[in-house]
Amino acid sequence: MYKLIATDVDGTLLDNNSQITELNRRALLECRKRGIEVVLATGKTMDSILYLVKDLGLSLPQITLNGSITISPDLKIIRSSKIDPVYYYEIVREIKDNNYQPVVALENGKLFLEDYHPDLKHLDDIGEKFESVSSIEIDYYANNTVDIYIPIEESNPLDSKLRKKYSDKMQFIRSGKFFFDILNKDATKGSALLALVDSLGINKEEIAVLGDSPNDLSMFEIAGLKIAVKDSYPEILEKADIVTDESYNSGLGKAIYKYIL
User: What pLDDT tens digit does each residue of the chain (261 aa) get?
Assistant: First the structure.
């Protein structure tokens, strides 16, 4: 019997309009009713998923910002992985020198940037809020940042340039066409989930994970059951035990009813 479900949010739990379908909602509420815990594991901030946490009555800490922050429903930080300030300054400067505007996420989950760029509408579309400041190149941001985000595609030369220069120092996460995040080397959804289940005394065989993107692979590594929605990245489909319907066709809910409940 499964004791815990960990699911990605955008592209897995939510449909193409960033809404939870009624079937997905009912499935997770039924899990909660039967004593199966639910953890959201997302690249988003806690502020942007708090409505889901409340609606689903989730009581466990949730995994946010690609595993760099594990935070309780009452906003207490359980676990965090900050970026080294030395690398922070280097990377921010490198991004700006290449004429892009980085968004930095702090340990408290707040997002900051210097100048808004139209490409950042991808963050707007998923409900993220950010604040403009005069400069992010000061110690306050350098000492408290867990995630640096740039809205670039994989084909953009800056992607490969940053990976080549910092691959042994930082972690690079791509969770969508325009979602490129730079994090502490130890910050993954999988490491955050492992720390959480170890504290709960839950075994690998009792964990079901649902995802769609490369940043979910680290969770697949510690799952007893790996489920991918049909519209997932190829590397996720390859590792999945089960491929369910698309995210916009309530694939999550259908899989939960068929294989877990």
Answer: 899 999 999 999 999 889 999 999 999 999 999 999 999 999 999 999 999 999 999 999 999 999 999 999 999 999 999 999 999 999 999 999 998 889 999 998 899 999 877 777 777 777 778 888 999 999 999 999 999 999 888 899 999 999 999 999 999 988 777 788 999 999 999 999 999 999 999 999 999 999 999 999 999 999 999 999 999 999 999 999 999 999 999 999 999 999 999
Range of the domain at 170: 85-184
Q: Are residues 192 and 169 in the same domain?
A: no
Residue where a domain stops, chosen among 118, 153, 184? 184
CATH number of domain containing 132:
3.30.1240.10
Instruction: Give pTM, 2 decimals.
Output: 0.90
Residue 252 is inside which H or E element, if any?
helix 251-255
Which residue, among 82, 68, 176, has the nearest Cα to 123 in the 3D structure? 176
